[in-house]
Amino acid sequence: MIRKTSKESIAPYLRDASNYSGGKAEEVLIPESVDELVCALKDDLRPVTISGAGTGLNASRIPSEGIVISLERFNEMKTVKNGEIWLGPAVTLLNLQEHLKNTNWFYPPNPTETNASIGGTLATNASGSRSYKFGVTRNFVNAADCILADGRRVMVKRGHKITEPLLMDDDSEIGFPEIKYTTPNCKNAAGYFVQPGMDWLDLFIGSDGTLGIFVNICLKLLPRPDTFLSAVLFFEKEKYCWDLVSKIKSTTFVSPCSLEYFDRFSLELLRENYPNIPLQAEAALFFEEDVADQNDYDAALLVWVEFLTDKNILMDESWFAHDQKDVQAFHEFRHQIPMLVNEKNSRAGREKIGTDMAVPDKYFDDMMTFYNKTLFGKGLPYVIFGHLGDNHLHINLLPDSSQKKLAESLYDELARKIISWEGTVSAEHGIGKKKKKYFHEMVGEESIEGLKKIKNVLDPQTRLGRGNVL
Ligand SMILES: Cc1cc2nc3c(=O)[nH]c(=O)nc-3n(C[C@H](O)[C@H](O)[C@H](O)COP(=O)(O)OP(=O)(O)OC[C@H]3O[C@@H](n4cnc5c(N)ncnc54)[C@H](O)[C@@H]3O)c2cc1C
Questions:
Q1: Is the pLDDT of residue 274 over 80?
Q2: Are residues 212 and 293 in the same domain?
Q3: Which residues of 315-337 are buried (b: 16+ CB within 10 A; e: fewer)?
């Protein structure tokens, strides 16, 4: 077991990509085996925050007290067998993608930040551009070896329903409590996942480091598509882009796996690094479609070109990928926008003020109009980008020091409206420490009491991820 006790060695574990300040920890423990981790949890009764790669945006890996346990040594990756891979939680998405390059297998979840650890992506139920077609991390987890806060261990497998108790390694049993709460019916990462008759595994996934510690994970893989067809389309008006997305969603003619949006201010920011963005463009859409067989590529491209004709797109100025290097470059273009925002926040010493809200399909147009009406012309810089296909956009507010209150009241106004449309205040980053106020408004206090019962059966001392979610 490695122990870090000096202020300087603890400091890196008090940060994540949210720029949240105020983290505190007495010590960082870095176990080198599951046995060491279990002993530490049994012998040391202080509150514990688990640390992944620290790319999270909700401050859930930032401890408010007690100790940090970092699983950075748990980075073993087994070979793929029957479309599954076992790996340690510290393996990063990038490591996994590199590893799979030499195989015929593909892991679809692609949260834009590839330095994220697989453990962190399970804890937040991360999603990304390709979730539009393939779904979220939860859909690709077959099993997880979990340790509870008191050191008990359980292998949680797909198909093990909450109607049956969890059988722990010391032969004790844990039953799912009676509660009324169920998770909203749209893309959602807010609070615990609860559906009647669901698997225990789905409860642990997305629990923001508060219910159990993943020490070994079995991921489900899909056969690798031969290639991806992809483009970045530009529009003279934002509305033209929203209309196109509605048309794409209601046709079977084309079937993209990603539909990612950039508003006019995102393009303004990106122009610093991409001077080739057309000057008249006020919006852009990055799309890609997976093509199983390379021989079908030309036909699929023709279908897209035909579909896109006469749809108010700046076709001559738009970028179409010629090869997989271009597809990668478009992903990097998408990744650049949150990176530039995070850099701006760091330079300004500002905590990230970014929304992660989504609504059911029927509110898509209302949501887009409402966002623009509420934010435009207020004198407060902002950008809107993200997963348009899932009605799930990230609004990042960039207030100067005199505009903090205005930013907070705008965020409140946006959240209230999304909640009134039965949407979610977090569709992919989780609640963590930053969005609890909105989560409580979204589900109400009775539901919070129900969720506390779940926490209570798995971690009665409230040691794990203290200060997150509830
Ligand atoms: C530029 C940028 C773009 C991003 N884009 C996306 C995106 O498109 N989609 C998306 O979903 N997210 C996105 N994110 C957010 C982030 O990458 C994800 O939330 C990611 O899942 C966090 O992983 P991590 O390893 O960094 O976790 P951390 O930040 O270290 O921790 C996050 C949470 O996971 C818990 N945790 C970590 N490991 C374990 C474990 N083994 N067992 C139990 N709990 C654990 C922690 O305690 C904490 O609660 C982005 C972040 C950045 C900086």
A1: yes
A2: no
A3: eebbbbbeeeebbeebbebbebb
DSSP structure string for 19-64: -------SEEEE-SSHHHHHHHHHH--S-EEEE--S--SSSTTS-S
Copy the structure tokens of residue 419. Answer: 């909640």
Q: Of 20, 50, 217, 336, which is best to mutate to test ligand 1, by the most ligand atoms within 8 angstroms of its C-beta?
A: 50
- Residue 130, in any domain of the structure: yes
Judge whether 145 and 130 are in contact, CB under 8 Å.
Answer: no
* Of 15, 117, 146, 426, best ligand 1 pocket probe by most atoms within 8 Å of the beta carbon: 117
Tell me which of 113, 203, 210 to substitute to probe ligand 1's pocket, judged by most ligand atoms within 8 Å of the beta carbon.
Answer: 113
pLDDT at 10 over 90: yes
Which of these three, 420, 443, 465, is where a domain ends? 420
CATH code: domain of residue 193 = 3.30.465.10
Q: Which of 16, 45, 70 is the last residue of a domain?
A: 70
pLDDT in tens, 418-427: 999 999 999 9
Q: What is the mean pLDDT of residues 314-333?
A: 95
pLDDT band at 185 (very low <50, low <70, confident <90, very high): confident
Same domain as 213, residue 94: yes
Spacing, Cα 121 to ligand 1 middle (Å): 5
Distance in Å, CA 141 to ligand 1 centroid: 16
pLDDT at position 313 is 98
Q: In which domain, by residue range, is 181 found?
A: 84-223
Q: Same domain for 270 and 311?
A: yes
Parallel/antiparallel/unpaired status of strands 382-387 and 258-262: antiparallel
Q: Is 302 contained in some domain?
A: yes
Q: Which helix (H) or strand (E) is 327 found in, with range?
A: helix 324-348
Please, which pLDDT band fits residue 354 given cuts at 50, 70 and 90? very high
Q: Tokens 């993209």 — which residue?
A: 256
How far, in Å, is the centroid of ligand 1 from the Cα of 116?
6
Residue 187: the pLDDT is 87
The answer to whether residue 426 sits within a structural domain is no
Protein residue whose Cα sits closest to atom 9 of ligand 1 = 111
Q: Hey, is 167 helix, strand or coil? A: strand
Centre of ligand 1 from the C-alpha of residue 428, in Å: 10
Task: Please tell me whether residues 336 and 372 are part of one structural domain.
Answer: yes
CA distances from 320 to 63, 224, 305, 326, 470 (A): 45, 22, 10, 8, 45
Same domain for 88 and 182?
yes
pLDDT single digits (tens) 12-36: 999 999 889 889 999 999 999 999 9
In this predicted structure, what is the pLDDT of residue 441? Answer: 95
- Domain assignment present for residue 300? The answer is yes
Same domain, 208 and 352: no
Quick one: pLDDT at residue 19? 87
Distance 309 CA to ligand 1 centre (A): 39
Provide residues with CB under 6 Å of ligand 1: 16-17, 49-57, 60-61, 71, 89, 111-113, 116-117, 119-121, 123-124, 126-128, 208-209, 213-214, 338-339, 342, 428-429, 465, 468
